[in-house]
Amino acid sequence: MKIGIIELDIPNHYLAVNSIAKIYATQKENEVIIFTNDAISGLLSPLTSTNKKISIVTMQKKQTILAFFLQINDFHLDRVHIVSAYFNFKAYANHQFNCPVYLGIHNEYKSWFYKNLIKGFQIVLIKSHLGLNRDLIYNLRKTIWREIRSLYYRRKILHNTLIKGGKIVVYGPNIEREIVRFVHAKQVLQIPFAIYEELDKQYEFNPPSNKLVIGIPGIVDKRRDIKGLINFLADNKEYLKEEMKFKFIGKIDKSDPILPRFKSLIRQGFDIEYSTNYLSEIDFSKQIISSDILLGNIPFSNIKAKKAIETGVIYAMIRAGKPGLFPYGYFSYCELNDSILYYNNYHDLFQILIKLIHGHGILASLKQNAINNSRKFTPKNLYNVLLFS
Fold it and tell me: What is the layout of strands, in order, in the sheet containing 244-251?
């Protein structure tokens, strides 16, 4: 089988490209070709150096998207797997691939199925600071037209995908539950964004700390309740700063108003690590495997609103075989149930952390469960899901 994987839009999605390529390449008879651009191909070079069945074709700088798609057709593929489509909707909609297409849809699934005109109004009003100015009517008309056009192209892409026997690919159970409200369940394929890669065997990392090391993966932004977490640390500083280490494993912007609070906690004696730069894949992986447990501090408001979101914390858990902590009500893979602990509020989280420190064998048991669970997500185990579901 000859499989093409396309990723032209989001460099950070190279991890998904890596996982999907490795899954397809588990069979000797398969040939996997990744079609991408300069920004992403460099991130994937280690993949091709270790697997001869995987190759990369890079779009030329002066080449148009449509010309690149026509070049892809010349490879006479058996399947095209589009990892993510955030831009270039017109090109995707107007091109006909000569094989079934597996279309990846992420957390922005609503923009594929809902009418987004209200969002257009919101964008313009926010940008105009809720004030009237001479450009408001022009901007409003322009935004509404862009939303209508974008929705039209997305619908056309979906139609072209499904009518030719392709499928919608989602990267977690939360989005799958939402997508099947709009299309038949048989037309939806759910696979994880990451695979188990036994990271502890690939990288050297610092020896275990005598403290409980809590990793918080991901960019520091509004998708995580960073403000609530910092208040929690400040309110319990006399205990937490002595027994625990907190690692923010992702970039925090230098202009972020939360940064001075990080620095204040460190001055008070907290053991906190953070970075104002993007972490390389190697540095990110090392930080993950040197953590005892990973915290997915999704805002409680998102949980209560039942927002169907997937978080990269889950995929970090799968890749490294790590246990996790999440707000109660967050739904994840059932395969991970006995390696996740849930908390109702920050007082509840405090009690859980105390038990992890002083409870004999609790953390060790969670860690072993996490490794056992992650082994269910090896490329070999996921191949049949990706090929025959």
Answer: 271-275, 244-251, 212-217, 293-295, 324-327, 340-343
